[in-house]
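Subject: design request, 369 residues
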């Protein structure tokens, strides 16, 4: 066995609770962030590279992580985006013919701090009962007092703007320029599989940096607009909220996913709030109130749209609800070409029940043209 005497490691939570573990491979150092957990049994590479997780320490509840290696095309962005990994059993060996690397090498390329052999069931129960909180994972177990001080200075996710940390610096194109339609996407943390899903339905996408003005997007003359998923609190995203307001005012086809959905709600004067614990997994049940059908969805969010405000807003209709806790899972505007969902129809990872939403977006664009 390669790592018989692995270094001691631990996770210290903001409330002082400590869980012990061991360093993964050559991992050394400390990583701070908001501790959150994902219950997906597959899709670790997609999760680790999803820009929405920027600044978060990821606890994977599946008992085995790494056992099918990694494969370039499964990454949802150009690098690992989580702040650190906490897992139960880390597999140094992998068995999948198509894999092109081990998870250990994949994470090492990003110098990610990862710890394993943690009692993740106890840790998840603690977070579920006490709510989302910051933490630090470390191999510097002798520096506990210093780490406690540093941890106290880590900002709370509530109120934190993070889209600027993951957004593209320059606009870029995705798809076939001879497509039927043009979609302008505001990158506040976009996942690759969203781009694939829009492009494969006959739209050429231009991706714009998070702080692009509406006029600069409109100058490309797009047929529709897209607001992406992304990390952090939606509330500080004043520029994106302004862009959404202008798209809505012009009644251009607009679709938003997750952070983009929250931005659309805020553009309509509906507030968002930090949840006790977010939804992160690939088996979240949602009901489509327009069709009465259920869908099993991929989710990853720690904020949500205020349901009472959304329901009493005369411009809006709540179209989807989360069946576990009745939170808002989707909205549309009654008299505008605009809709959004809190979850991830592009999956990656997760089920494909909700792919119809991309078809709907393209139909909305077609109707408007
Ligand atoms: N996946 C996302 O877009 C997440 C949105 C937002 N950062 C939240 O946690 O609620």
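Subject: RE: design request

Done. Sequence follows.
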């Amino acid at each position: 066995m390669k790592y018989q005497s692995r270094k001691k490691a631990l996770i210290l939570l903001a409330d002082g609770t400590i869980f012990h573990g061991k360093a993964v491979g050559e991992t050394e150092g400390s990583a701070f962030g908001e501790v959150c957990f994902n219950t997906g049994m597959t899709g670790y590479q997609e999760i680790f590279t999803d820009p929405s997780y920027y600044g978060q320490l990821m606890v994977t509840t599946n008992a085995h992580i790494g056992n099918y290696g990694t494969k370039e095309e499964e990454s949802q962005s150009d690098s690992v985006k989580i702040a650190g990994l906490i897992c139960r059993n880390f597999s140094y060996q992998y068995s999948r013919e198509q894999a092109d690397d081990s998870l250990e090498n994949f994470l090492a390329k990003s110098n990610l701090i990862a710890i394993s052999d943690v009692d993740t069931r106890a840790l998840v129960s603690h977070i579920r009962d006490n709510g989302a909180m910051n933490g630090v994972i470390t191999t510097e177990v002798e520096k506990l007092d210093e780490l406690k001080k540093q941890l106290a200075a880590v900002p709370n996710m509530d109120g934190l703007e993070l889209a600027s940390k993951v957004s593209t610096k320059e606009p870029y194109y995705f798809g076939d320029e001879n497509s039927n339609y043009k979609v302008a996407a505001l990158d506040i943390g976009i996942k690759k599989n969203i781009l694939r899903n829009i492009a494969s339905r006959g739209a050429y996408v231009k991706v714009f940096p998070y702080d692009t003005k509406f006029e600069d997007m409109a100058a490309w003359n797009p047929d529709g607009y897209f607001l992406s998923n992304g990390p952090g609190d939606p509330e500080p995203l004043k520029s994106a909220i302004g862009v959404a307001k202008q798209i809505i005012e012009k009644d251009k086809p607009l679709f938003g996913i997750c952070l983009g959905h929250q931005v659309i709600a805020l553009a309509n004067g509906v507030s968002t709030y930090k949840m006790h614990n977010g939804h992160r997994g690939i088996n979240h049940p949602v009901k489509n109130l327009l069709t009465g059908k259920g869908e099993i969805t991929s989710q990853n969010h720690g904020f949500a749209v205020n349901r009472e405000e959304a329901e009493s807003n005369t411009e809006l209709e709540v179209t989807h609800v989360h069946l576990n806790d009745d939170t808002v899972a989707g909205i549309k505007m009654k008299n505008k070409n605009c809709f959004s969902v809190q979850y991830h129809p592009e999956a990656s990872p997760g089920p494909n029940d909700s792919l119809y939403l991309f078809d709907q977006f393209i139909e909305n664009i077609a109707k408007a043209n």
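The chain has eleven helices and 19 strands.
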